[in-house]
Amino acid sequence: MSPGTLARLAVAGNRTDLARMVLTALSAALATLVVLAALTVLAIEKPPGPEGTQSEQYTNALLREPGLRGGTAFALLLLTIPVLALAGQCARLGAPARDRRLAALRLAGATPGQVTRLAALETGLASLLGALAGLAGYLVGRTLLHRPDGDGRLALPTDVLPAVPALAVVVLALPAIAALATAVMLRGVTTTPLGVVRRAGRTGAPRPWPALLVGLGVLAAALFEPVRESLGPALDAWLALVVLVVAISAVLGVVLGTGTISYLVGRLLHRYASSPARLLAARRLTDDPWAGSRTFAALLAALVFGAGAAAFRAWFQLRDQLEREQNQVAGFADFQPDSFYLRTMDLVDLAVALAVTVAAAGLIVMVVEGISTRRRAYAALVATGVPRTTIGTSILWQVLAPVVPAVLSALGAGYVIGRMLMGDIASGGRTEEVCRASAELCQDPVARQNYVEFVQVDQVVSAPGVPLGQLALLGGGAVVAVLATVGVGLLFLRSNTAVEELRAT
Amino acid sequence: MTQLHARGLVKSYGPTPALRGLTLDIAEGEIVAVTGPSGCGKSTLLHCLAGILRPDAGEVTWRGHRIDTWSEAARSRLRRTEFGVLFQFGHLVAELTGAENVALPLLLAGTGRRAARTAALNWLDRLGVAELADVRPGEMSGGQQQRCAIARALVTEPRVLFADEPTGALDTVTGEQLLTHLVRLAGEQRTAVVLVTHEPRIAAYADREIVMRDGVIDHTGLGLDAPLAGGLR
Ligand SMILES: Nc1ncnc2c1ncn2[C@@H]1O[C@H](COP(=O)(O)OP(=O)(O)O)[C@@H](O)[C@H]1O
Ligand SMILES: [Mg+2]
C-alpha cells in the first residue's frame, strides 16, 4: 500500500471513528499543554545571587522559590498520567466498528502488518493534530495570560519559553508514543478477514503478589526516616528518587491488586448470587479480572497520591499547631506559622481532584465500550423480556463491587506510605523561654524581660492523627464519580439494546 | 382456539413501509411458518406479534387482551412468562456457561438457583447437548449455540415461541436437525411456534405456511400438504 492510500484509509470511517479520533486528539492536546507547562516551569532561570534568592518577578511562591520548581514540574507531569490513560481508553471507543473495517480490509487483501500500521497511523495522526492544537493553545494562552500586576509581577511564568527544540520534541514525541502504544496494544489482537480475534485473556486466578509490591512500598517508606537520619542530608537527592520508586510501586501494586480483588469479589458474588444481575456481574468479573485494573488504573493512582497528600497535610497541620502552642506558652500570642506548605498541599489536592475527574471521564468511555461490544447479547436479552434495569444493575454491580475494596486499598496504601515518609513530630526537648504575664506585657520587648523564665520542656513525640475526614472525602468523591459515570454510561444502554441490533446482518 | 390475534398491522420505518395492514391468527400449539423474500416484513411482523415493537396501526391481542397498548414493562413481563424468542444467532451471554444461559429466564422469574440449574440441565439434555452445561458460547459451534438458545427459549414453557430464521446461519443438515428438535419439543408441551424463514424447505415442518410479500400476506399454504406455492418451491 502506498503511504497515501494508507493515510486515506486510516482516516476513513464512521461517526464513532470520528468521535474516537476527536477524543484522542483532545487528550493529546491536553497532555501537550500539561507537558509544556511543566517545561515552562523548568525553564525559569535560577536568579543570580546567594542561595535562597527568590525570583521576584512572580507572585506565586511555587514559582519564586527555585527549590520548589522541580516539585511543581513533577506534579504537572504526574497529571499527564490520567490524561494519557484517558487517551488509551479513547483508543478502545468504537472498537467494534473499527474492527469490522479492519476485517474488511483484510478480506480485501491487506496483510496483518498493514492493518496494524493503519490503526497506529490513525492514532498517530489524531495525536499529532491534537499536539499541534495543544501547542497553539499554549502559545496563544501565554500571550493572553501575560498580565503583569501593578508591581510588574506575574501570576504565571508567561515571560519564559522553553527551548524551541524542546517544544518540537514534545509535539513530535507524544504522537509517536501514542502510535507505538497502539501498535503494541494490537499485538494481542489478530485481525482475520472474518473478524477480530482477541487473544484469550490470561487464564487462571490472578496471584496475590501485587500485595507484595504495596508491602515493599510501605517497608521502604518505613525505612526512609531512619536511613535519612543515619546518612545525613548529603543523599537527599537520591532519597527523593527512592520516594518516587516507593510511590510508583505502591500504585502498581494497588492497580494490579485490583485484578486480584475483582477476581475474588467475582467468586464471592458468584457463590452467593441469586439474582441474574449479580450472576452476570460475577461471571464478567471472574472472566476478565484485569478489566478492573485497566479501568480504574488512573483513578486508583490519583487516590494513592491523594491519600499520601492527606497524610502530609495532617503532618503539616500538627506541626503548625504545635508551633502555635509553643508560641502561646512563650507569650507570642498572635504568632502565625507560615502555612506555605499547607497552601502547597491545596495545590496537590487540586491536582488530585483534576486527576479523579479525568479518570472518571475515561471510565465513561470504558462503560460505554463495554455496553456496545455486548449490545447484541443485551438486545437479545431485552427481546426475551429481561428488563433493562436488570442489565443496568448487573453493570452497576460489576463496576462497584471491585471498586469499593480497590478504593479502600488505594487510600490505605497511600496514607500509610505518606505517614511513614513523614514520621512523627518531636517537639520540646530543650529549654524554652516562658513569659509569665499578660500578652500585652509579653509583647513589649522591655517589659518582657521582667517576666521571662527559662523552663526545661520535656521532649514530646506527637503523631499526627489519621485525617479520616479527608480520606473519607477522597474515597467518597471517587465512588460518587464512578457512580455518576456509570449512570451516564447506562444512558447508552437503551440505544444499544434496540431491536435494530438484532436484524440479521 | 385462537390465542394470538393480529389485525390490520401497519408499521413503517420512516418512509419505508414494512407492514401494510396484515391480519393473522395463531392457534394454541400451532406451528406457523412465515416465508417470503428478504425485506418483505417478516421480522417486523414477528417483533410486533411478540410485543417487541409497537405497530403504528392495527392491534395485537393475546387471549383477549390488547397487548400493543401495554407499557414496555408489561410487555417485557409477557415475553418473559408466556413467550419465547429465538434469533438467527443464539445471542447467548458470552460470559455465562451453557447451563447458566439457559437458567437465566428462570432466575429472572425468581426460581431458586439450584432448581433453575436442574431445569437447565434437563433442557440441555432434551436437546441432546448435555455436555455443553459448563461450556462458554465462544467454544460452541453455531449449531450448539442455537440448541442452547432453544433450551433458553423453551425453559419457561412459553405458550408461543417466536423464531426469526433460527437456522439461517447453519448448514442444511444441522438446520434440519435443529428444527426437528424444536418442533418435537414445542409439540410435547403444546407451545405454538411462529417460525420465520426464507427457505421453503424448512416451512415443510409447519402446520401452516404464510407467504408474505411487500408487507402483507400474499397467500397461505398448508405445510407439508400444501400445493407448490407461488413459485417459491
Ligand atoms: N430499523 C429499521 N430501519 C429502517 N428500515 C427498516 C428497519 N427494519 C426494517 N426495515 C425495513 O423494513 C422492511 C422490512 O424489513 P424486515 O421486517 O426486516 O424484513 P424481512 O425480515 O422479511 O427481511 C425492509 O424494507 C427493511 O429495509
Ligand atoms: Mg428478517
Looking at this protein, list some descriptive labels.
heterodimer, A: 505 residues, mainly alpha, 3 domains, two-stranded antiparallel sheet, B: 233 residues, alpha/beta, 10 strands, globular, binds adenosine-5'-diphosphate, binds magnesium ion
Description:
- The complex is a heterodimer of chains A (about 500) and B (about 230).
- In chain A, about 70% of the residues lie in helices and about 5% in strands.
- Chain A has about 500 residues and is mainly α.
- Chain A has 3 domains: about 1-200, no CATH class; about 215-425 and about 465-505, no CATH class; about 430-460, no CATH class.
- The radius of gyration of chain A is 28 Å and the shape is globular.
- The mean pLDDT of chain A is about 80.
- Chain B is an alpha/beta fold.
- Chain B has a domain at about 95-150.
- Chain B contains 7 helices and 10 strands.
- Chain B has helices at about 40-50, 70-80, 100-110, 115-125, 140-155, 170-190, 200-205, and strands at about 1-15, 15-25, 30-35, 55-60, 65, 85, 160-165, 190-195, 210-215, 215-220.
- In chain B, helix 4 (about 115-125) crosses helix 5.
- The longest helix of chain B is centred in the C-terminal third of the chain and has 17 residues, at about 170-190.
- The two termini of chain B are about 30 Å apart.
- Classes of the chains: A mainly alpha (about 500), B alpha/beta (about 230).
- The interface of A and B includes residues 275 and 384 of A.
- The complex binds adenosine-5'-diphosphate and magnesium ion.
- Adenosine-5'-diphosphate binds near residues 16, 38, 39 and 42 of chain B.
- Adenosine-5'-diphosphate (ADP) binds near residues 16, 38, 41 and 42 of chain B.
